Request: fold
Amino acid sequence: MAYEITLMTTIAISILFALSLNFISGFCGQISLGHAAFLGTGAYTSALMTKASIPFLITLPVSALTAGILGFVIGLTSLRVRHDFLAITTMGAGFLFVGIIRQQDFFGGEIGISGIPATGLGRIGFMSLCLALAAAFALFSILIRGSWMGFVFSSIADNEDVTRILGINASAYKLIAFVIGTATAGVAGALYAHHFRFIGPDSFGFVESISVLAMVIVGGIGSVAGIVFSAALLSVMPLLFQFIDDYKLLLYSALLFAMMRFSPDGLAGLCVRTYRKLTGARA
Amino acid sequence: MALKTTFTGLALGLSMIAGIAHADNIKIGFNVPLTGFAAADGKSALNGAELAVEQVNSAGGINGHNIELAVYDDQASPKEAVPIAQKLIEKDKVVAGISGSYSGATRASAGIYQEAKIPYVSAFAIHPDITRAGDYIFRTAFVGEVQGRAGAKLIGEMLGKKRVAIITLKNDFGKSLAAGFKEAASKFGIEIVSEYEYSIKDRQFGPIVSKVKSDKPDAIYASGYFFTAGPLVSQLRSAGVDVPIIGQEGYDSQKFIEIAGAASDGIIITTSLDRDSKSAETMAFISAYEKKAGQKTDMVAASAHTAVHVIAAALKNASGMDASALRAAIAATNLPASIGTISFNALGEVQKDVQVQVVKDGNWHHHSVISDADLLAPPNE
Amino acid sequence: MLYLELLIQGIVQGSIYALIALGLTLVYGLLRILHVAHAALFTLGGYIGVIVTNQSGSLVFAMFVAAILVGLVGMAIYKLAYEPLLNQPPFIALIASIALFIASEELFRIGFGPYGISYASQPLTGHLELFAGFRLKYAEILVIGMSIIILSILAYLSVNTRIGVAWRASVTDPSMARAFGVNIQNVRYMNFFIGSALAAIAGVLVALLNNFVEPTMGSVASYKALAIIVLGGLGNIRGTLLASMLLGVIEAFGTIYIGHLIDRDALAFGFLIIVLMIRPQGLLGVK
Reply:
């Protein structure tokens, strides 16, 4: 069972992480290429704390706080840039994060942090916690999307200038999305650290930022259900494809490309279109 | 239709995998990077390990049973390595595991193996904390510090060079080498005149080369892998820096000589594999590897090869079939292998001599051996 | 003396950046796509350069073949990958491009092996001794010289030929250009051909400097070139050249003097973020 439990835990953490990016990129339209930095912030915060014998559950809110504070700072600077400039700025933030972690012995430098203690919840308990947190945030996302705040988010995503003309403080809402999204990523990071029990700078680099963005976009940007499904699928994909070892990444990238090429609105869009086709309904 | 074909193909693929496994083979887990940035080392490691399996089986296997590798690609990532370790232990029911991968992945899986109390041998990952995961974890490679100290002795005492510039690869490998080197430097009268770091992604070293040239050291201690060291050495030489350059096992590949070309001549490294060795195991390995892989061997392949032999020998010697008997047999290893005679200390770190190799006429050759047991003592706890 | 050497090293690196980033900024200027897979074309150029040189013995011929072949591959990428995505939000093309980049790294590994390849006998290994102890390698001279010549020719053509004017018009205002009878499609093909050919030449030159081409050769270029074109002001050619040179020089000095505090990538992106905070439109971009 341990293997299945490990997979479920991995899936739950991926879902939480992907949904946290969806809050920023999906709901609010702010594409981030550096989201792994916040996963890393949470992971390092939590790992350093539990290594200092602080109970794991206490480190969760602290991880959310540190990642959220960093998110607030990056969010503030990101207010100055838009669209592709924003994407590259967040990518830069990601590289800066890894670059700083690498040089600090306090964070374990290149060696990383190993021997992260167990949570004390047991394998099944920890998996349940991860699943519960992922489910809770999915629910929260759906609630927000239907609220006034969700409406403002999507109007910012559609056209920020019009939103501003309507007298809405778009900057404040963007910041709120940034803080909620990054704080959640911090929680996912704390879970990540105690799941794999080894973290190093390479765990939170550009590749990780890209793979989480791929989860969001393959799921269908903004679609909670689609992202839950794609995060689950993509996070275990390398393991599912083990039998074609040599061509694994090639197949992954080919599928990703095909998805963008033929169904740019992701799995969610694909499902909607297939459903309409089957029922013969017209859009 | 297309969908149906896909499913048939998938089912076919799955049944094929199931078909390969033989019930009475003894399985050894092997995680190795076959895709992604570390694929070159992964390929060598897999070739070396497969060669060892063939040798063991053609020599009669283990008490009539053949051994077999359960191979998974971990992309050198801890994230992939953890579920792979779980799967190897739980689904493949391996008796022991080998890491043919880098430090991050190895450190992460070591925890899983230790928890399940299944022996795990790191072939060439050098992270100091790997063996500290517990008493079921062993390593056939030197920790970085040991090799760094050997480098200091080589430069300060054997070559008699005192003013040294250090160029360090910025990862766990390079950093721990540098730490070991600096720790032993004063003992051999070495003065470190300057120190630079580069990232594993760098291939152009122009600025560092210019600065090192102006530092005018007597020797250069530069860590790296063949793909960084090749360009680095070639750029140092073509800028007119002609003092001795000392490297380590990361250089240890024919590919290094190919990349650095004429500049590789006279480069000296500390490593595990002696190309001119007269030992039967090493000679057999070198020629068999060339035949199998179609290219010259390297340190990574030799280390993975040795790790398989260590486990195979322990399986033969173990007093029972359970994991704790196997662990005890590995801990008691005293085995002549392709990278020298292997034994482990209390922590599970290998104890063996350091081979010093030099490039002559486009090939690695014997230079000397460092067998100073005090200097080379690996960490014990 | 050391400063001069560091400056030269920075310019060599900057020239490589310029050749790669120029193609990227051409694509961005015309299509608003962040073309990450451009870095794969740089690698492909390196592979073709080494293989053709080893077979034919001529570096010049190899460079020519690499430029033409990779230019054609670039056009195919536009036709097959980007054209169908032009009406989608830009991040769709970005992810598609990243997928293409990963796929090509894997194809290089599967096709040419994981160990990488080198020149059978490395060309241009000699050097020029300008004054005592100050050396310029032939390969470095070639890098700087090629960049200056190629970029000058392009600058000349874009101002003094019909097709150059059509191209500039299409970048500034596509619909107006179309109204004046410019065939936008042809301009796009030409754009991809030239940009990809430049990346291929950069690939051959880097292969020459390192005597090594490997499957992951483009991984740094994939993101650093993005930083450079953003730094220059997206789609701005002069800005891109300026940013390339500045970054090359900053990295050269930074590696030596603050390398122990911050690594090369973080240095580049730190600089980028500072510039963007002061000038959100990039160095030479217009709002």
Q: What stands out?
A: The longest helix of chain B spans residues 39-58. Chain B has two domains: 2-142+278-348, 144-271+355-370. Residues 168 and 197 of chain B are 5 Å apart (CA to CA). The first strand of chain B starts at residue 26 and ends at 32.
